[in-house]
Amino acid sequence: MPKGPTQLDGHLVAERLGQALPGIVQRSTDEWVEVRPERLQEALRWLHDSEEFDAAQLSNCCGVDRHHHFEMVYHLQSLDLNHQIVVKAIVLDHDRPSLPSAYPVYKGALLQEREVYDLMGIEFEGHPDLRRIFLWDGFPGHPLRKDFLGIGAGLTSGLARFPYEDKTDPDRIMNPPESMRAAAQEPEAGSQEPSPEWRGEQHP
Amino acid sequence: MVVRPEIEREFETQDLLLNVGPQHPSTHGVFRMVMEIDGELVKDVVPYIGYLHRGAEKLCETMDYRQGIGFMDRTEYLAAFNAELSYVMAVEELAGLEVPDRAQWLRMILCEMNRIASHLMFMGAFGIDVGVFGTPFIYAWREREAIFDLFEEVSGDRMMYAYFRPGGLAWEVPVNFTERVREVLKAVNQGIKDFDGLLTENEVFIARTRGVGAISAADAIDFGMSGPSLRASGVPLDIRRTEPYLKYAEVDFDVVVGQNGDVYDRYLCRLQELRESVRIVEQCLEKLPDGPIMPEKMPRMLRTPPGEVYIRTEAPRGEYGIYLVSEGGNRPYRLKVRSACLSNLQALKHMSVGQYVADAIIVLGSIDIVLSEVDR
Protein backbone atom coordinates (compact mmCIF):
# COMPACT_ATOMS: atom_id res chain seq x y z
CA MET A 1 0.00 0.00 0.00
CA PRO A 2 1.32 3.47 -0.78
CA LYS A 3 2.49 5.48 2.14
CA GLY A 4 3.86 8.95 2.61
CA PRO A 5 7.63 9.15 3.03
CA THR A 6 7.64 10.11 6.69
CA GLN A 7 4.39 8.51 7.71
CA LEU A 8 4.48 6.40 10.87
CA ASP A 9 3.33 2.82 10.97
CA GLY A 10 -0.29 2.78 12.13
CA HIS A 11 0.16 -0.41 14.13
CA LEU A 12 2.87 1.21 16.22
CA VAL A 13 0.73 4.25 16.97
CA ALA A 14 -2.25 2.02 17.75
CA GLU A 15 -0.22 -0.06 20.18
CA ARG A 16 1.02 2.93 22.17
CA LEU A 17 -2.34 4.64 22.04
CA GLY A 18 -4.07 1.49 23.25
CA GLN A 19 -1.67 1.14 26.14
CA ALA A 20 -2.22 4.70 27.31
CA LEU A 21 -5.97 4.88 26.69
CA PRO A 22 -7.42 1.35 26.73
CA GLY A 23 -10.25 0.62 24.37
CA ILE A 24 -9.82 3.73 22.24
CA VAL A 25 -8.43 2.07 19.11
CA GLN A 26 -10.91 0.37 16.84
CA ARG A 27 -8.73 -0.72 13.99
CA SER A 28 -5.32 -0.06 12.55
CA THR A 29 -3.40 -0.73 9.37
CA ASP A 30 0.15 0.11 8.46
CA GLU A 31 -1.09 3.47 7.21
CA TRP A 32 -3.57 4.78 9.73
CA VAL A 33 -5.07 4.24 13.14
CA GLU A 34 -8.82 4.39 13.60
CA VAL A 35 -10.13 5.59 16.94
CA ARG A 36 -13.60 5.54 18.50
CA PRO A 37 -15.40 8.64 17.23
CA GLU A 38 -16.74 9.74 20.62
CA ARG A 39 -13.21 9.66 22.07
CA LEU A 40 -11.52 11.40 19.15
CA GLN A 41 -10.62 14.50 21.11
CA GLU A 42 -9.01 12.42 23.81
CA ALA A 43 -6.89 10.57 21.26
CA LEU A 44 -5.78 13.77 19.53
CA ARG A 45 -4.97 15.37 22.87
CA TRP A 46 -2.83 12.40 23.85
CA LEU A 47 -0.96 12.34 20.55
CA HIS A 48 -0.45 16.10 20.82
CA ASP A 49 0.98 15.91 24.34
CA SER A 50 2.94 12.67 24.24
CA GLU A 51 6.68 13.01 23.93
CA GLU A 52 7.01 9.99 21.72
CA PHE A 53 4.70 11.26 18.99
CA ASP A 54 4.63 15.02 19.61
CA ALA A 55 1.95 15.68 16.99
CA ALA A 56 2.20 19.44 17.23
CA GLN A 57 0.40 20.45 14.05
CA LEU A 58 -2.80 19.47 12.38
CA SER A 59 -1.68 19.48 8.81
CA ASN A 60 -4.84 18.47 7.04
CA CYS A 61 -8.30 17.26 7.91
CA CYS A 62 -10.66 15.88 5.39
CA GLY A 63 -13.95 14.04 5.19
CA VAL A 64 -14.65 11.16 2.85
CA ASP A 65 -18.16 9.99 2.01
CA ARG A 66 -18.25 6.20 1.84
CA HIS A 67 -21.93 6.00 0.81
CA HIS A 68 -23.17 4.51 4.10
CA HIS A 69 -20.86 6.21 6.53
CA PHE A 70 -18.38 9.06 6.70
CA GLU A 71 -14.68 8.91 7.37
CA MET A 72 -12.83 11.83 8.91
CA VAL A 73 -9.11 11.75 8.25
CA TYR A 74 -6.68 13.81 10.32
CA HIS A 75 -3.10 14.19 9.17
CA LEU A 76 -1.00 15.19 12.16
CA GLN A 77 2.66 16.01 11.99
CA SER A 78 5.50 16.47 14.37
CA LEU A 79 7.95 19.17 13.44
CA ASP A 80 10.72 18.15 15.80
CA LEU A 81 10.61 14.43 15.13
CA ASN A 82 9.66 14.85 11.46
CA HIS A 83 6.93 12.29 11.07
CA GLN A 84 3.29 12.12 10.20
CA ILE A 85 0.43 10.30 11.86
CA VAL A 86 -2.87 9.57 10.18
CA VAL A 87 -5.87 9.28 12.49
CA LYS A 88 -9.28 8.26 11.25
CA ALA A 89 -12.72 8.33 12.81
CA ILE A 90 -15.79 6.71 11.30
CA VAL A 91 -19.15 8.46 11.55
CA LEU A 92 -21.79 5.80 11.13
CA ASP A 93 -24.89 7.97 11.08
CA HIS A 94 -25.15 9.07 7.47
CA ASP A 95 -28.26 11.20 7.96
CA ARG A 96 -27.13 13.37 10.83
CA PRO A 97 -23.37 12.89 11.08
CA SER A 98 -21.66 14.49 14.02
CA LEU A 99 -18.24 14.24 15.60
CA PRO A 100 -16.34 15.97 18.41
CA SER A 101 -14.39 18.94 17.14
CA ALA A 102 -10.60 18.95 17.05
CA TYR A 103 -10.53 22.69 17.71
CA PRO A 104 -9.86 22.45 21.48
CA VAL A 105 -6.65 20.58 20.66
CA TYR A 106 -5.61 22.23 17.39
CA LYS A 107 -6.58 25.77 16.55
CA GLY A 108 -5.75 24.88 12.97
CA ALA A 109 -9.06 23.06 12.78
CA LEU A 110 -10.99 26.32 12.86
CA LEU A 111 -11.55 26.89 9.15
CA GLN A 112 -10.77 23.37 8.00
CA GLU A 113 -13.65 21.92 10.00
CA ARG A 114 -15.95 24.63 8.77
CA GLU A 115 -15.03 23.55 5.26
CA VAL A 116 -15.89 19.94 6.04
CA TYR A 117 -19.15 21.05 7.61
CA ASP A 118 -20.00 23.12 4.57
CA LEU A 119 -19.15 20.65 1.84
CA MET A 120 -19.70 17.34 3.61
CA GLY A 121 -22.29 18.18 6.26
CA ILE A 122 -20.57 16.72 9.30
CA GLU A 123 -21.39 18.68 12.44
CA PHE A 124 -18.59 19.22 14.90
CA GLU A 125 -19.59 19.43 18.55
CA GLY A 126 -17.62 22.02 20.42
CA HIS A 127 -16.58 24.05 17.40
CA PRO A 128 -16.86 27.73 18.35
CA ASP A 129 -18.09 29.07 15.04
CA LEU A 130 -19.67 26.38 12.91
CA ARG A 131 -21.08 28.15 9.87
CA ARG A 132 -20.93 27.57 6.16
CA ILE A 133 -17.69 28.87 4.75
CA PHE A 134 -17.72 28.69 0.94
CA LEU A 135 -21.40 28.43 0.12
CA TRP A 136 -24.16 30.70 1.25
CA ASP A 137 -26.57 29.92 4.06
CA GLY A 138 -29.48 28.04 2.64
CA PHE A 139 -27.58 26.30 -0.12
CA PRO A 140 -29.38 23.03 -0.72
CA GLY A 141 -27.34 20.09 0.43
CA HIS A 142 -23.66 19.42 0.83
CA PRO A 143 -21.92 19.13 -2.54
CA LEU A 144 -19.10 16.73 -1.71
CA ARG A 145 -21.52 14.05 -0.59
CA LYS A 146 -21.92 11.28 -3.06
CA ASP A 147 -25.71 11.53 -2.92
CA PHE A 148 -25.75 15.25 -3.64
CA LEU A 149 -28.87 16.32 -5.53
CA GLY A 150 -30.73 13.27 -4.27
CA ILE A 151 -29.30 10.88 -6.82
CA GLY A 152 -29.61 7.58 -5.08
CA ALA A 153 -26.94 5.24 -3.80
CA GLY A 154 -24.18 7.62 -4.75
CA LEU A 155 -23.39 5.78 -7.93
CA THR A 156 -23.15 8.94 -9.99
CA SER A 157 -21.11 12.00 -9.29
CA GLY A 158 -24.13 14.11 -8.57
CA LEU A 159 -23.53 16.80 -11.12
CA ALA A 160 -26.17 15.88 -13.64
CA ARG A 161 -28.96 18.19 -12.58
CA PHE A 162 -29.44 21.34 -10.63
CA PRO A 163 -31.71 21.03 -7.65
CA TYR A 164 -35.14 22.49 -7.39
CA GLU A 165 -34.73 24.32 -4.17
CA ASP A 166 -37.37 23.99 -1.48
CA LYS A 167 -37.68 27.53 -0.13
CA THR A 168 -39.36 26.50 3.10
CA ASP A 169 -36.67 23.98 3.98
CA PRO A 170 -33.41 24.96 2.25
CA ASP A 171 -31.52 21.87 3.29
CA ARG A 172 -33.96 19.55 1.60
CA ILE A 173 -33.65 18.55 -2.03
CA MET A 174 -36.77 17.74 -3.92
CA ASN A 175 -37.59 17.03 -7.49
CA PRO A 176 -39.50 19.65 -9.41
CA PRO A 177 -43.25 19.19 -9.31
CA GLU A 178 -44.70 17.19 -12.16
CA SER A 179 -46.55 20.14 -13.67
CA MET A 180 -43.43 22.26 -13.78
CA ARG A 181 -41.39 19.53 -15.36
CA ALA A 182 -44.00 18.99 -18.04
CA ALA A 183 -44.11 22.69 -18.77
CA ALA A 184 -40.36 22.80 -19.18
CA GLN A 185 -40.28 19.86 -21.53
CA GLU A 186 -43.20 20.69 -23.78
CA PRO A 187 -43.40 24.38 -24.45
CA GLU A 188 -46.64 25.53 -25.96
CA ALA A 189 -46.64 26.71 -29.54
CA GLY A 190 -45.44 30.28 -29.87
CA SER A 191 -44.27 30.47 -26.28
CA GLN A 192 -40.59 30.74 -27.13
CA GLU A 193 -40.83 34.46 -27.64
CA PRO A 194 -41.92 36.74 -24.85
CA SER A 195 -45.51 37.69 -25.03
CA PRO A 196 -46.30 41.22 -26.27
CA GLU A 197 -47.40 42.28 -22.78
CA TRP A 198 -43.94 41.68 -21.47
CA ARG A 199 -41.95 44.91 -21.59
CA GLY A 200 -38.92 44.06 -19.53
CA GLU A 201 -38.11 44.57 -15.94
CA GLN A 202 -37.18 48.19 -16.16
CA HIS A 203 -39.82 49.63 -18.37
CA PRO A 204 -41.08 53.02 -17.24
CA MET B 1 -6.59 55.51 39.73
CA VAL B 2 -10.20 56.18 40.63
CA VAL B 3 -12.38 57.17 37.72
CA ARG B 4 -15.53 59.00 38.60
CA PRO B 5 -18.65 57.68 36.89
CA GLU B 6 -19.48 60.90 35.04
CA ILE B 7 -16.03 61.01 33.47
CA GLU B 8 -16.35 57.40 32.53
CA ARG B 9 -19.59 58.19 30.78
CA GLU B 10 -18.06 61.12 28.99
CA PHE B 11 -15.37 58.89 27.49
CA GLU B 12 -17.69 56.08 26.67
CA THR B 13 -16.73 54.81 23.24
CA GLN B 14 -18.51 52.75 20.73
CA ASP B 15 -16.93 50.04 18.62
CA LEU B 16 -17.33 50.31 14.90
CA LEU B 17 -17.72 47.56 12.36
CA LEU B 18 -15.59 48.17 9.30
CA ASN B 19 -16.13 46.14 6.18
CA VAL B 20 -13.15 45.53 3.88
CA GLY B 21 -13.79 43.90 0.55
CA PRO B 22 -14.80 41.80 -1.27
CA GLN B 23 -13.72 44.24 -3.96
CA HIS B 24 -10.89 46.12 -2.40
CA PRO B 25 -7.44 46.54 -3.93
CA SER B 26 -5.56 45.38 -0.85
CA THR B 27 -7.36 42.09 -0.38
CA HIS B 28 -5.50 40.38 -3.23
CA GLY B 29 -8.63 39.00 -4.81
CA VAL B 30 -12.17 38.64 -3.64
CA PHE B 31 -11.74 38.41 0.09
CA ARG B 32 -13.92 40.12 2.63
CA MET B 33 -13.16 40.78 6.25
CA VAL B 34 -15.20 42.57 8.83
CA MET B 35 -13.12 44.35 11.43
CA GLU B 36 -14.41 45.53 14.76
CA ILE B 37 -12.44 48.65 15.52
CA ASP B 38 -12.05 50.80 18.58
CA GLY B 39 -10.74 54.06 17.24
CA GLU B 40 -7.82 52.93 15.12
CA LEU B 41 -7.25 49.67 16.98
CA VAL B 42 -8.52 46.38 15.65
CA LYS B 43 -10.46 44.35 18.21
CA ASP B 44 -11.77 41.51 16.08
CA VAL B 45 -11.43 40.25 12.52
CA VAL B 46 -13.91 37.94 10.85
CA PRO B 47 -12.90 36.69 7.40
CA TYR B 48 -15.52 35.79 4.82
CA ILE B 49 -14.36 33.63 1.95
CA GLY B 50 -15.93 31.56 -0.77
CA TYR B 51 -16.41 34.15 -3.49
CA LEU B 52 -14.16 32.14 -5.78
CA HIS B 53 -15.35 28.67 -4.89
CA ARG B 54 -15.61 26.57 -8.02
CA GLY B 55 -15.81 23.09 -6.56
CA ALA B 56 -12.57 21.84 -8.09
CA GLU B 57 -12.50 18.85 -5.75
CA LYS B 58 -15.94 17.73 -6.80
CA LEU B 59 -15.21 18.31 -10.46
CA CYS B 60 -12.07 16.20 -10.26
CA GLU B 61 -14.19 13.27 -9.11
CA THR B 62 -15.92 13.32 -12.46
CA MET B 63 -12.79 13.55 -14.61
CA ASP B 64 -10.03 11.08 -15.23
CA TYR B 65 -6.62 11.66 -13.77
CA ARG B 66 -5.14 13.58 -16.66
CA GLN B 67 -8.08 15.94 -16.91
CA GLY B 68 -7.64 16.88 -13.27
CA ILE B 69 -4.29 18.54 -13.98
CA GLY B 70 -6.00 21.59 -15.44
CA PHE B 71 -8.07 22.11 -12.31
CA MET B 72 -4.96 22.04 -10.17
CA ASP B 73 -3.51 24.91 -12.21
CA ARG B 74 -6.55 26.95 -11.46
CA THR B 75 -6.49 26.27 -7.74
CA GLU B 76 -3.24 28.14 -7.45
CA TYR B 77 -2.72 30.35 -10.43
CA LEU B 78 0.37 32.13 -9.16
CA ALA B 79 2.33 28.92 -8.71
CA ALA B 80 0.62 26.52 -11.04
CA PHE B 81 3.63 24.25 -11.56
CA ASN B 82 3.88 23.61 -7.83
CA ALA B 83 0.20 22.82 -7.65
CA GLU B 84 0.42 20.41 -10.58
CA LEU B 85 3.43 18.77 -9.03
CA SER B 86 1.58 17.71 -5.86
CA TYR B 87 -1.24 16.30 -7.90
CA VAL B 88 0.82 14.30 -10.38
CA MET B 89 3.03 13.04 -7.57
CA ALA B 90 -0.02 11.75 -5.71
CA VAL B 91 -1.28 9.99 -8.84
CA GLU B 92 2.18 8.52 -9.51
CA GLU B 93 2.41 7.27 -5.94
CA LEU B 94 -0.93 5.49 -6.25
CA ALA B 95 -0.36 4.13 -9.73
CA GLY B 96 3.22 3.13 -8.95
CA LEU B 97 4.81 5.04 -11.80
CA GLU B 98 8.56 5.68 -11.94
CA VAL B 99 9.48 9.13 -13.18
CA PRO B 100 12.65 9.38 -15.33
CA ASP B 101 15.51 11.43 -13.95
CA ARG B 102 15.42 14.11 -16.61
CA ALA B 103 11.74 14.77 -15.99
CA GLN B 104 12.40 15.13 -12.27
CA TRP B 105 15.18 17.65 -12.79
CA LEU B 106 13.11 19.63 -15.28
CA ARG B 107 10.19 19.65 -12.85
CA MET B 108 12.48 21.01 -10.20
CA ILE B 109 13.72 23.82 -12.42
CA LEU B 110 10.20 24.80 -13.41
CA CYS B 111 8.89 24.67 -9.85
CA GLU B 112 11.69 26.81 -8.52
CA MET B 113 11.27 29.31 -11.35
CA ASN B 114 7.60 29.44 -10.50
CA ARG B 115 8.45 30.03 -6.85
CA ILE B 116 10.57 32.98 -7.97
CA ALA B 117 7.70 34.36 -10.05
CA SER B 118 5.29 33.95 -7.16
CA HIS B 119 7.57 35.56 -4.60
CA LEU B 120 8.23 38.45 -6.99
CA MET B 121 4.50 38.92 -7.25
CA PHE B 122 4.37 39.03 -3.45
CA MET B 123 7.08 41.69 -3.34
CA GLY B 124 5.18 43.88 -5.76
CA ALA B 125 1.79 43.55 -4.11
CA PHE B 126 3.26 43.90 -0.64
CA GLY B 127 5.08 47.02 -1.67
CA ILE B 128 1.78 48.56 -2.67
CA ASP B 129 0.21 47.44 0.60
CA VAL B 130 2.77 49.28 2.66
CA GLY B 131 2.41 52.35 0.50
CA VAL B 132 5.33 52.32 -1.92
CA PHE B 133 3.16 53.02 -4.85
CA GLY B 134 4.07 51.75 -8.28
CA THR B 135 7.79 51.09 -8.26
CA PRO B 136 7.94 47.63 -6.62
CA PHE B 137 5.04 46.45 -8.70
CA ILE B 138 6.76 47.45 -11.92
CA TYR B 139 10.02 45.85 -10.75
CA ALA B 140 8.18 42.65 -9.94
CA TRP B 141 6.29 42.62 -13.20
CA ARG B 142 9.42 43.11 -15.27
CA GLU B 143 11.18 40.00 -13.98
CA ARG B 144 7.99 38.01 -13.80
CA GLU B 145 7.31 38.69 -17.46
CA ALA B 146 10.71 37.23 -18.37
CA ILE B 147 9.88 34.07 -16.44
CA PHE B 148 6.44 33.85 -18.00
CA ASP B 149 7.92 34.18 -21.46
CA LEU B 150 10.12 31.22 -20.66
CA PHE B 151 7.15 29.22 -19.40
CA GLU B 152 5.25 30.06 -22.53
CA GLU B 153 8.07 28.72 -24.66
CA VAL B 154 8.07 25.52 -22.63
CA SER B 155 4.39 24.80 -22.10
CA GLY B 156 2.58 27.05 -24.53
CA ASP B 157 0.76 28.97 -21.84
CA ARG B 158 1.63 31.80 -19.51
CA MET B 159 -0.28 30.86 -16.38
CA MET B 160 -2.28 27.63 -16.77
CA TYR B 161 0.46 25.30 -17.92
CA ALA B 162 -0.97 21.76 -17.68
CA TYR B 163 2.53 20.58 -18.57
CA PHE B 164 3.25 17.93 -15.95
CA ARG B 165 1.76 14.51 -16.54
CA PRO B 166 1.51 11.51 -14.26
CA GLY B 167 4.76 9.81 -15.18
CA GLY B 168 6.72 12.75 -16.48
CA LEU B 169 6.20 15.74 -18.74
CA ALA B 170 3.92 16.41 -21.64
CA TRP B 171 6.71 17.05 -24.14
CA GLU B 172 10.40 17.86 -24.30
CA VAL B 173 11.56 21.37 -23.50
CA PRO B 174 12.89 23.59 -26.33
CA VAL B 175 16.47 22.97 -27.47
CA ASN B 176 17.81 26.24 -26.07
CA PHE B 177 16.10 25.74 -22.72
CA THR B 178 19.19 25.91 -20.50
CA GLU B 179 20.52 29.06 -22.19
CA ARG B 180 17.14 30.72 -21.84
CA VAL B 181 16.92 29.80 -18.15
CA ARG B 182 20.38 31.28 -17.55
CA GLU B 183 19.32 34.47 -19.32
CA VAL B 184 16.22 34.76 -17.18
CA LEU B 185 18.19 34.06 -14.02
CA LYS B 186 20.48 36.93 -14.85
CA ALA B 187 17.49 39.25 -15.02
CA VAL B 188 16.08 37.78 -11.82
CA ASN B 189 19.34 38.36 -9.98
CA GLN B 190 19.19 42.00 -10.98
CA GLY B 191 15.56 42.14 -9.83
CA ILE B 192 16.44 40.74 -6.42
CA LYS B 193 19.14 43.37 -6.04
CA ASP B 194 16.64 46.07 -6.97
CA PHE B 195 14.17 44.91 -4.34
CA ASP B 196 16.88 44.61 -1.76
CA GLY B 197 17.96 48.16 -2.44
CA LEU B 198 14.45 49.53 -2.60
CA LEU B 199 12.83 47.96 0.45
CA THR B 200 15.12 46.07 2.84
CA GLU B 201 16.85 49.02 4.43
CA ASN B 202 14.25 51.60 3.62
CA GLU B 203 13.52 53.50 6.83
CA VAL B 204 9.87 54.06 6.07
CA PHE B 205 9.41 50.44 5.12
CA ILE B 206 11.06 49.23 8.34
CA ALA B 207 8.99 51.62 10.42
CA ARG B 208 5.84 50.28 8.83
CA THR B 209 6.65 46.58 9.09
CA ARG B 210 9.00 45.79 11.95
CA GLY B 211 7.20 44.52 15.04
CA VAL B 212 3.85 44.45 13.28
CA GLY B 213 1.68 41.34 13.30
CA ALA B 214 4.13 39.21 15.24
CA ILE B 215 3.22 35.61 15.96
CA SER B 216 5.20 33.25 18.13
CA ALA B 217 6.48 29.92 16.87
CA ALA B 218 4.17 27.90 19.13
CA ASP B 219 1.09 29.81 18.00
CA ALA B 220 2.06 29.61 14.35
CA ILE B 221 2.41 25.83 14.60
CA ASP B 222 -0.86 25.51 16.49
CA PHE B 223 -2.74 27.48 13.84
CA GLY B 224 -1.40 25.18 11.16
CA MET B 225 0.72 27.74 9.36
CA SER B 226 3.37 26.63 6.92
CA GLY B 227 5.77 27.99 4.37
CA PRO B 228 7.59 31.31 4.70
CA SER B 229 4.94 32.60 7.09
CA LEU B 230 5.87 29.86 9.56
CA ARG B 231 9.60 30.01 8.93
CA ALA B 232 9.59 33.73 9.73
CA SER B 233 8.70 32.73 13.28
CA GLY B 234 11.88 30.71 13.51
CA VAL B 235 10.57 27.22 12.73
CA PRO B 236 12.81 25.56 10.15
CA LEU B 237 10.06 23.52 8.51
CA ASP B 238 10.69 23.16 4.82
CA ILE B 239 9.26 20.07 3.19
CA ARG B 240 12.00 20.19 0.57
CA ARG B 241 14.37 19.50 3.45
CA THR B 242 12.34 17.38 5.88
CA GLU B 243 10.98 14.91 3.35
CA PRO B 244 12.84 15.55 0.11
CA TYR B 245 10.85 14.86 -3.04
CA LEU B 246 12.11 15.07 -6.63
CA LYS B 247 15.90 15.58 -6.37
CA TYR B 248 16.01 18.08 -3.54
CA ALA B 249 18.24 15.75 -1.55
CA GLU B 250 20.96 16.18 -4.17
CA VAL B 251 21.14 19.95 -4.27
CA ASP B 252 22.57 22.32 -1.74
CA PHE B 253 20.34 25.02 -0.31
CA ASP B 254 19.60 26.67 3.01
CA VAL B 255 16.31 26.79 4.83
CA VAL B 256 15.70 30.44 5.54
CA VAL B 257 14.29 31.24 8.97
CA GLY B 258 13.38 34.52 10.59
CA GLN B 259 13.52 35.50 14.23
CA ASN B 260 10.59 37.62 15.30
CA GLY B 261 7.78 36.31 13.16
CA ASP B 262 6.63 39.79 12.26
CA VAL B 263 5.72 41.22 8.88
CA TYR B 264 9.26 42.37 8.19
CA ASP B 265 10.65 38.89 8.80
CA ARG B 266 8.09 37.37 6.49
CA TYR B 267 9.21 39.76 3.78
CA LEU B 268 12.88 39.05 4.47
CA CYS B 269 12.35 35.29 4.38
CA ARG B 270 10.81 35.51 0.96
CA LEU B 271 13.56 37.77 -0.32
CA GLN B 272 16.19 35.32 0.90
CA GLU B 273 14.25 32.41 -0.56
CA LEU B 274 14.47 34.07 -3.96
CA ARG B 275 18.25 33.79 -3.73
CA GLU B 276 18.03 30.18 -2.58
CA SER B 277 15.75 29.35 -5.48
CA VAL B 278 18.23 30.87 -7.91
CA ARG B 279 20.95 28.71 -6.33
CA ILE B 280 18.83 25.59 -6.72
CA VAL B 281 18.07 26.30 -10.36
CA GLU B 282 21.73 26.90 -11.15
CA GLN B 283 22.66 23.54 -9.62
CA CYS B 284 19.83 21.84 -11.48
CA LEU B 285 21.05 23.23 -14.79
CA GLU B 286 24.49 21.78 -14.18
CA LYS B 287 23.15 18.38 -13.22
CA LEU B 288 20.44 18.16 -15.86
CA PRO B 289 20.90 14.76 -17.56
CA ASP B 290 19.79 13.62 -21.00
CA GLY B 291 17.25 10.87 -21.40
CA PRO B 292 13.57 10.18 -21.70
CA ILE B 293 10.94 12.35 -20.06
CA MET B 294 8.21 9.73 -19.77
CA PRO B 295 8.38 6.08 -18.69
CA GLU B 296 8.67 3.72 -21.65
CA LYS B 297 5.48 1.85 -20.96
CA MET B 298 2.61 4.13 -20.11
CA PRO B 299 -0.92 2.76 -20.14
CA ARG B 300 -3.29 4.44 -22.53
CA MET B 301 -5.83 4.79 -19.76
CA LEU B 302 -4.32 5.50 -16.40
CA ARG B 303 -5.91 3.41 -13.67
CA THR B 304 -4.98 3.19 -10.03
CA PRO B 305 -5.49 0.39 -7.53
CA PRO B 306 -7.67 1.14 -4.48
CA GLY B 307 -5.83 3.02 -1.82
CA GLU B 308 -5.15 6.46 -0.50
CA VAL B 309 -2.17 8.73 -0.27
CA TYR B 310 -1.34 12.12 1.15
CA ILE B 311 1.41 13.89 -0.76
CA ARG B 312 2.62 17.31 0.22
CA THR B 313 5.12 19.61 -1.39
CA GLU B 314 6.55 22.97 -0.56
CA ALA B 315 4.68 25.49 -2.65
CA PRO B 316 5.59 29.19 -2.41
CA ARG B 317 2.87 29.73 0.19
CA GLY B 318 3.52 26.65 2.22
CA GLU B 319 2.47 23.07 2.37
CA TYR B 320 0.36 22.23 -0.65
CA GLY B 321 -1.01 18.76 -0.04
CA ILE B 322 -3.10 16.39 -2.06
CA TYR B 323 -5.09 13.71 -0.28
CA LEU B 324 -6.16 11.27 -2.96
CA VAL B 325 -8.50 8.36 -2.33
CA SER B 326 -8.98 5.81 -5.06
CA GLU B 327 -11.36 2.91 -5.26
CA GLY B 328 -9.88 1.64 -8.49
CA GLY B 329 -10.75 2.94 -11.92
CA ASN B 330 -9.54 5.94 -13.80
CA ARG B 331 -10.84 8.75 -11.63
CA PRO B 332 -10.35 9.82 -8.03
CA TYR B 333 -12.92 8.71 -5.49
CA ARG B 334 -12.13 11.71 -3.35
CA LEU B 335 -9.59 14.44 -3.87
CA LYS B 336 -8.80 16.93 -1.19
CA VAL B 337 -6.53 19.87 -1.78
CA ARG B 338 -4.83 20.98 1.40
CA SER B 339 -4.53 24.69 0.86
CA ALA B 340 -1.64 26.46 2.53
CA CYS B 341 -3.40 29.82 2.34
CA LEU B 342 -6.52 28.62 4.11
CA SER B 343 -4.45 27.38 7.02
CA ASN B 344 -2.38 30.54 7.14
CA LEU B 345 -5.56 32.57 7.12
CA GLN B 346 -6.64 30.97 10.38
CA ALA B 347 -4.01 32.97 12.20
CA LEU B 348 -5.17 36.28 10.69
CA LYS B 349 -7.26 37.25 13.71
CA HIS B 350 -4.50 36.35 16.12
CA MET B 351 -2.01 38.49 14.22
CA SER B 352 -4.22 41.52 13.60
CA VAL B 353 -5.93 42.04 16.94
CA GLY B 354 -4.36 44.94 18.78
CA GLN B 355 -2.84 46.43 15.62
CA TYR B 356 -3.90 49.52 13.76
CA VAL B 357 -6.28 49.21 10.84
CA ALA B 358 -3.57 50.10 8.35
CA ASP B 359 -1.37 47.37 9.85
CA ALA B 360 -4.10 44.77 9.57
CA ILE B 361 -3.93 45.31 5.82
CA ILE B 362 -0.22 44.60 5.63
CA VAL B 363 -0.61 41.60 7.93
CA LEU B 364 -3.04 40.20 5.40
CA GLY B 365 -0.62 41.06 2.62
CA SER B 366 2.28 39.43 4.40
CA ILE B 367 0.75 35.95 4.48
CA ASP B 368 0.49 36.26 0.70
CA ILE B 369 -2.95 34.82 0.15
CA VAL B 370 -4.19 33.65 -3.21
CA LEU B 371 -7.93 33.49 -3.02
CA SER B 372 -8.32 30.88 -5.69
CA GLU B 373 -6.31 28.54 -3.51
CA VAL B 374 -8.29 29.40 -0.40
CA ASP B 375 -11.65 28.79 -2.07
CA ARG B 376 -10.73 26.20 -4.67
Q: Overview of this structure, please?
A:
The complex is a heterodimer of chains A (204) and B (376). With 204 residues, chain A is of the alpha/beta class. Chain A has a domain at 6-135: NADH:ubiquinone oxidoreductase Nqo5 subunit (Beta Polymerase, domain 2). Chain A has 4 helices and 9 strands, in the order αββαββββαβββα. In chain A, the strands form 3 sheets. Chain A has a 5-stranded mixed β-sheet, with helices on one face. A two-stranded parallel ribbon of chain A has the order 6-7. The longest helix of chain A is centred in the middle third of the chain and has 12 residues, at 109-120. The model of chain A is unreliable at 150-163 (pLDDT under 50). By secondary structure, chain B is an alpha+beta fold. Chain B has a single domain (52-333, 366-375), classed as Cytochrome-c3 Hydrogenase, chain B (Orthogonal Bundle), CATH 1.10.645. Helix content of chain B is 49%, strand content 12%. Chain B contains 16 helices and 8 strands. Chain B has helices at residues 5-10, 56-61, 68-75, 80-95, 101-130, 135-155, 177-200, 203-209, 217-222, 228-231, 239-242, 263-287, 340-345, 348-352, 357-366, 371-375, and strands at residues 16-20, 32-38, 41-48, 164-165, 168-169, 307-315, 318-326, 334-338. In chain B, the strands form 3 sheets. In chain B, strands 1-2-3 form a 3-stranded antiparallel β-sheet. In chain B, a hairpin with a 2-residue loop joins strand 4 and strand 5 (168-169). The radius of gyration of chain B is 22 Å and the shape is globular. The model of chain B has no long low-confidence stretch (mean pLDDT 87).
